[in-house]
């Protein structure tokens, strides 16, 4: 009870199931792919916040702002406890999304505003790290 092992394990197993589901949704490539992937991201954040308790109020606020600004899905990343958020946003909404997040999260707070240029940016998914072997 003190370490909340059942609660933590529920998050870990749920997160593993979401990863498997995420891959299967990507592989299927249906018309609902983006919506389904966004929902999996949202579920992941809720689990990190509620079961693993590795979020913080500022990060929850940022995720909420991102969703209201047009993200299909948004979640903490970088181990939580004050890490950062990653959001899935349709490319045609990227500029308005950035402006809305800037206005709602960064601009009102001078400390956040000072970090905005290095903290708020657009990227695209890639294949990740790989190892090249010479033959």
Automatic annotation (TrEMBL):
Pfam families: GHMP_kinases_C. The keyword ATP-binding applies. Residues 33-106 form the GHMP kinase C-terminal domain. The keyword ATP-binding applies. It comes from the Eukaryota. InterPro entries: GHMP_kinase_C_dom, GHMP_kinase_C_sf. GO terms for molecular function: kinase activity. PANTHER family: GALACTOKINASE-RELATED (PTHR10457:SF7), MEVALONATE KINASE/GALACTOKINASE (PTHR10457). This is N-acetylgalactosamine kinase. It comes from Characodon lateralis. The lineage of its organism: Eukaryota, Metazoa, Chordata, Craniata, Vertebrata.
């Amino acid at each position: 009870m003190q370490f909340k092992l059942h609660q933590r394990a529920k998050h870990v197993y749920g997160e593993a199931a979401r990863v498997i589901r995420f891959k299967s949704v990507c592989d299927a490539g249906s018309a609902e792919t983006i919506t389904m992937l966004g929902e999996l991201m949202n579920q992941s954040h809720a689990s990190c916040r509620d079961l693993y308790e590795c979020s913080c109020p500022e990060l929850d606020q940022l995720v909420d702002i991102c969703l209201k600004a047009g993200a299909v899905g948004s979640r903490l990343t970088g181990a939580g406890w004050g890490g950062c958020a990653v959001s899935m946003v349709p490319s045609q909404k990227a500029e308005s999304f950035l402006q809305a997040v800037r206005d709602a999260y960064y601009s009102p707070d001078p400390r956040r505003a000072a970090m905005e240029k290095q903290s708020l940016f657009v990227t695209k998914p890639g294949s990740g790290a790989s190892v090249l072997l010479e033959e």
